[in-house]
Design goal:
Layout lengths: L6 H18 L14 H25 L5 H22 L5 H29 L4 H22 L3 H22 L5 H20 L6 H14 L9 H22 L2 H27 L1 H26 L8
Helix pairs in contact: 1-8, 3-4, 4-5, 4-6, 5-6, 6-7, 7-8, 8-9, 8-10, 9-10, 9-11, 10-11
């Protein structure tokens, strides 16, 4: 389903926008508002840091194969500890820019932990692939979860969520390396829907990140079923997208409604082209898809009227 791939950059761009907007709106409770670092200067600082980091990584990549196994592990583990310490230092400031910097360096620390554990399990311990995958995923998710518990910001939220999903898939691979793809798809779908529910109940802040990433996972997961059954993929995908549309209408969550609508469009279009493309032709198939989307939108609007809470009558 190539159309679903467009959901990823859309969510990333929207997430970055809301992250900067929400973060810029945070005001220290006991500090003056003047003297803040401007967003332009902060962006320039990040560009400089990225260039320095890219240069260091490129230099290390040229000599990486020549490094001893223990040295490579030590470099990655040391980087994880270094960036962890930097985050603890910058987190002590009430300046919002330093809060965002903490998020970035702790995300780098999490990535370094994953790299160090992968180097340890694959090159030094030489564990089986399934075991190495499970150990790296579980330990990285635990690291990300600990940082999220301390610093509940967007990047730590995303790192924790990714760690949970990857760990679940690693458990499946460890139990049954030859398991069909639909098993992982169902697990990812369940995690995504569960994360949406947790976000809706405000249990995993920021909720405006939890709901879209959970929806994104739930919408993409059914596409992995196509290797086993196109019929099941379309049924599960359309049902999931329609359910998320109803959820978004009920909660008046516009970004979620947009994601679910795009997912529904992708699955319905794929189903119409797959089953009726030879008889109707692609233009007619798209027209039928548009009619189905309009019908669903009309039904959703009608349902929204019945789900609204009536205003209390004046006594």
């Amino acid at each position: 389903m190539p159309g679903l791939g467009l959901l990823i950059p859309i969510v990333l761009l929207a997430g970055l926008f809301f992250w900067f907007r929400a973060s810029r709106g945070e005001v220290p409770a006991d500090g003056p508002q003047h003297g803040r670092i401007s967003l332009l200067m902060e962006a320039i600082a990040y560009v400089g840091a990225v260039l320095m980091l890219a240069g260091a990584v490129a230099a290390m990549a040229q000599k990486w194969d020549d490094l001893a196994e223990g040295v490579a592990f030590a470099l990655l583990a040391g980087s994880a500890v270094l960036f962890l310490g930097i985050g603890f230092v910058t987190r002590r400031s009430a300046e919002p820019a330093f809060g965002r910097l903490t998020s970035v360096v702790w995300l780098i620390s999490t990535a370094a932990v994953a790299g160090a554990l992968a180097e340890l399990m694959v090159s030094i311990v030489e564990a089986p692939d399934e075991t190495a995958f499970l150990v790296v995923a579980t330990a990285t998710a635990t690291w990300a979860g600990a940082l999220y518990a301390i610093h509940r910001m967007v990047l730590q939220h995303l790192a924790l969520y990714a760690g949970i999903v990857v760990t679940a898939l690693a458990v499946i691979q460890r139990i049954d390396p030859g398991s069909p793809t639909w098993v992982g798809a169902v697990v990812a779908l369940a995690i995504g829907l569960g994360w949406v529910m947790l976000g809706e109940r405000r249990l995993v802040p920021p909720w405006w990140v939890a709901i879209p990433v959970g929806m994104l996972t739930a919408l993409i997961a059914p596409s992995a079923i196509q290797e086993d059954s196109f019929d099941a993929m379309f049924v599960v995908g359309i049902a999931t997208a329609a359910g998320l549309m109803a959820f978004s209408v009920r909660g008046r969550f516009v970004p979620g409604l947009a994601l679910a609508s795009f997912g529904l469009f992708a699955y319905v279009t794929g189903a119409v082209v797959h089953y009726f493309g030879d008889t109707l032709g692609v233009p007619a198939a798209l027209a039928v898809t548009g009619g189905v989307i309009l019908l669903i939108a009309a039904v959703s609007s009608r349902l929204a009227r019945f789900t609204r809470t009536p205003h209390p009558k004046a006594s």
